[in-house]
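Our platform keeps sequence and structure together, in a single record for each protein. Such a record has a labelled line for the sequence and another for the backbone structure tokens. This encoding replaces a full spatial description with a residue-level series of whole-number codes. Below, we set out a record of this kind in full and without editing:
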Amino acid sequence: MRQLTRSITEPFPIAGTKLFLGTSGAPTIIPCVQFQKVAILGVGLLGGSLGLAIARRKLAEKTAGYVRREASLVACREHTLVDEVTMDLEEAVRDADLIVLCTPLGQMKVLAGQILPHLKPGAIVTDVGSVKGGVVAELEPLFSSAGARFVGSHPMAGSEQSGPAAAMEDLYEKAMCIVTHTPDTDAEALTAIETFWQSVGARTLCLAPDLHDDLTSRCSHLPHIVAAELANYVLSPVHPVEQAALCATGFRDTTRIASGSPEMWHDIVASNRKHLLRVLNVFIEDLQEFYLALERNDMNAVIEFFKTAKTRRDQWQQDFNRKRTNDPPEKS
């Protein structure tokens, strides 16, 4: 069985090669993955950006996109997000070597069942969903039964914007992409998907699905809930009309992600309910501790609260910037 996590790999420095530091620390050049046809099912922000990245780096002979609405069809053609776009699901996946599910989590299982009879033997299927446990548990055996291979993915990239018009060709550059594995994951397909994401500029980290969901419940899903509650509470009509006028850049930046799709976040929260309940409980307890410190006028605890936050956040930002620029760590 594969180890629980695999080392983070850096993106390709140029199209066609990737510098990978193996266990010995020696650099190894790994060939770039390339497909004859890639089908992107759901050509919105993530799917459209993927189509642009594939074209820019010449990772496929042809890209096909599937959309459900006429307006999306027009937008995909207007912005040239894929080579071909259709509202016919069978046509989109026909002869595709790689299929990427870019639909909301709640639609993936139904969509998977619909494409099952039309898959090329040996085709690889992946997704971009923000929760992995349920998706992998359902789709890995489903696709395997049809002679296809499923590997879960979650590129940690996005925007509060959505739809084909929001697509960006550099969305995935230097982003972290989680690739999941189980004891039943096809090894060749896993390597192909890791290399694919590295090919579009992302760094990859391989995790077990449940570990992924535990980690993202804290760093991705909890912050969205907090941002949403800040927007709900601070901008509530029960406050004086002057309240909104006093909200400036700090409030804007802190609540930016609250403008994300409610439907998408409903699916994410519902799918990761188990982990979020535990994380929210700890978070609420931490807030309660701060409340009690303030209530008893314990200013030592209050200043320590802010000092700890600053130290941890500053260190994270430093590490984050270094990873994004591939700079070596500073010497102490």
Notes: The radius of gyration is 22 Å. The chain has a mean pLDDT of 88. The first strand starts at residue 17 and ends at 21. Residues 15 and 116 are 32 Å apart (CA to CA).
